[in-house]
Specification:
single chain, six-stranded antiparallel sheet, 20 strands, about 10% helix, globular, DUF1996 domain-containing protein, DUF1996, signal
């Protein structure tokens, strides 16, 4: 009885409903300037992404012909039945001399325990009542890569949190995207890590697997934050599992040498669009094997452990860490770069 109560409190403290949910690690598949959702078929797209998930990810993933399950031989995510692809923009440190360096990512902790990532991000599937799993070919986008105005972003859906310690255990703070969390990227002197949270819509029109803007076929429910989503609007009657990304950007190495920081006091941390937190965004392409995600939701599968009732199996970290692919738009992405890679191939500083 005491364990159950403590578990419920822990879940609530982290902002998820006091119920079971999938929460698992996804290591980095590749860091690449391709985007099959927004810029299909194009190499050296306008900005860089960090991608996780099934290794069939490529520059052109046609909704009618690209079956992630059959074309993938491994996944960089914990559950071996999940060949979905998840990706976000990349965070950079912009030095006062105009050079850029990619900020590394680390695994996330919290009340539910530490997740082991080799780069990448953490993924949540949070149900709220009876939910319908995504259909084969489904894809969507959260956020806007060209947005420069914080007030145009709903903080309950996209936010950042300053971590004042190199460790995130014990967990500090309340629910994701609440309290002192901000749309903008924090850059206080005591921020050792920055947690980025992206929460996706939970309501679907029930017809379209995608839309021209990759958003119009879905909508946010009446709820806000990481609660599984609220009541759906009438035009979007199908309730989906709530997908949430969490990325832990380790900025601690940039604190030691303040001589590299901008002299005008501006924020040195930007995303790969050369824009701030208001332009944060996440892309999703569904690729779970057969009906395993639906069964996982129906059978209250929890966190990142085996769930035999749904037929899902958690891999060891060494297995999903080993699932990587080569860049399809080859260029240097680590170390100091002469300029933000937004045009021609990136070059070393």
């Amino acid at each position: 009885m005491q364990w159950t109560s403590l578990a419920a409190v822990a879940l609530l403290a982290h902002g998820a409903a006091a119920q079971n949910m999938l929460r698992f690690a996804c290591s980095q598949l590749v860091v690449d300037r391709v985007d099959p959702l927004v810029n299909p078929g194009i190499k050296y797209t306008p900005h860089l992404h960090q991608i996780v998930g099934g290794n069939s990810f490529n520059v052109s993933m046609d909704i009618n012909s690209h079956d992630l399950v059959s074309k993938s031989s491994c996944t960089s995510c914990s559950f071996k039945e999940d060949f979905s692809n998840y990706w976000t923009a990349v965070m950079f440190f912009k030095a006062r001399n105009g050079t850029y360096k990619r900020v590394p990512q680390v695994g996330n902790g919290g009340p539910q325990g530490k997740l082991e990532n080799k780069g990448g991000l953490d993924v949540y599937y949070i149900p709220n009542g009876k939910v319908t799993a995504f259909k084969k070919g489904f894809r969507m986008l959260a956020g806007a890569a060209d947005n420069t105005v914080d007030s145009k972003v709903t903080k309950a859906n996209i936010c950042h949190r300053c971590w004042t310690s190199k460790t995130d255990t014990p967990f500090v703070g309340g629910a994701p995207c609440s309290g002192s969390d901000t749309v903008g990227i924090p850059f206080a002197n005591n921020c050792q890590m920055i947690r980025q949270t992206i929460i996706f819509p939970t309501c679907w029109d029930g017809v379209n697997l995608d839309s021209p803007d990759h958003k119009s076929h879905v909508a946010y429910g009446s709820g806000s934050g990481a609660n599984g989503g609220g009541t759906c609007p009438s035009k979007f009657p199908v309730k989906l599992p709530q997908i949430m990304y969490e990325v832990m950007w380790d900025v601690s190495s940039f604190l030691a040498d303040k001589s590299a920081w901008p002299t005008d006091g501006s924020n040195p941390f930007v995303y790969s669009m050369n824009l701030g937190g208001s332009a944060a965004h996440g892309d999703y392409v569904f690729g779970w094997k057969a009906d395993t995600l639906q069964k996982a939701m129906d059978n209250n599968c929890n966190l990142n452990v085996d769930c035999p009732k749904a037929g899902i199996t958690a891999q060891k970290a060494a297995q999903y860490n080993a699932c990587t692919i080569n860049q399809q738009a080859p260029e240097p992405v680590d170390g100091w770069l002469a300029a933000m890679p937004t045009g021609e191939m990136a070059i070393k500083a």
